[in-house]
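RETRY 2/3 - previous attempt timed out on the joint model. Re-submitting the same 516-residue input unchanged.
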Amino acid sequence: MPVRSAEELHQAIEAYLDALPLTNELGGLEDSLRYSLDSGGKRIRPILCLAVTEAAGGSVETALPAATAVELVHTFSLVHDDLPALDDDAERRGRPSTHVAFGEGVALLAGDALLSEAFRLVLDYERPEPARELVQATLGMIGGQYLDITGDNSDLADLHRLKTGQLFSAAVGLGLWVAGTSEAERTPWRAFGAELGLLFQVVDDILDGDGFAERLGVEGARKLADTAADRAREQLASISADTVTLGELLDGIVARTG
Amino acid sequence: MPVRSAEELHQAIEAYLDALPLTNELGGLEDSLRYSLDSGGKRIRPILCLAVTEAAGGSVETALPAATAVELVHTFSLVHDDLPALDDDAERRGRPSTHVAFGEGVALLAGDALLSEAFRLVLDYERPEPARELVQATLGMIGGQYLDITGDNSDLADLHRLKTGQLFSAAVGLGLWVAGTSEAERTPWRAFGAELGLLFQVVDDILDGDGFAERLGVEGARKLADTAADRAREQLASISADTVTLGELLDGIVARTG
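RETRY 2/3 succeeded.
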């Protein structure tokens, strides 16, 4: 049976998110969580998690809670990043950001609740390992956000290894865990995830005209992106599995225009 | 061997917190976490957790990560609550609150990191159950904070069952889990925790002149506190274990003057 396409996995994530019950006790706060999650995002991290699981011989259905937990952590970080105390962004993907739509206090609590819901989801598994992987990635990401706001970003690669790379890496790690891949076999998959995370960030910076594009110029950034894409393809080629959807995901990031 | 006193358990918590390694990748953000944790708090929740464990026949040392995780969740909630977007409190226990000392952006990230560190700690155990208990309590607490800021606090008991009660209940639940107490035996312990949480909140409101004291008057609130304390004592009396430290903790809350 062929593996599912990125688009099919995207649909699986959206369907799972739509039907996802949130904690009852959140009461009216739920609206702001749904609003934040329902933002037309590309869902690259959860698709990556599902595609890795399927390529490694695991079940997409079993991986859905883990994949969705990664997306919830990502969404939590966007909601808090957009607050006036951090990036002060009034819009996200053409809509008012959560704090503009619901007020700052509610957005603060919505972010806290999204992070907690992510851990609740990833604790659905019988074992604590996936939750441990997600919590380490979250702490790394927060460390990256701190580097970002304190201006201590002399090493841009290090900053993005934390701020973007950690969640990409967790998406891969969780996918492999669900598939039952042994630690010894995980190396090329993880290296692929790290290159994909770097590629994603450089392309993002080229589109936004900041970060790597500001530091290296657009041509320099484009070259860095191409090198990361090449290395990612090499890693994929070294894995004996049906990685066609992972290649598709990679090509989609290279071709991104918005 | 007699159980340890509340003061001895308090010292155990402080020593554990002082020596607790935080995640490396947090970098310079660690200072704001340490500042927030080192606030001269009473540590009632973690002491409760340890006292329950020891009374139920468990090991205080084994319970220390769980007890500390509860304190980290409590501290996260204070750091975020103090932000201008929520309560806008410039001081906590006579010191500048975290956002005044470090700036709003750093305080926001410090709260996020404290919550994540709490989950990291409680995921030290072999099984996911303690982490599940803590995440459910955290979500309930956040729901209570939402009720608090949206003014939908017509049922003050319900609000405080969430905002304060959930973490008291988790402290008891985690202590029992570490001690290996069966689900069937947990009922009076949990009922004790619920009464203690209510008692704590009512006494807090009497000292601050808000909440239950505002709603019921000081005499009415005092009466409610006495009733909760009586019921908590009854629950303790029904448990055949050395609950002397739990009784001491209860008496300490009744006698609180600040």
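Chain A has one domain: 6-254. Closing ticket.
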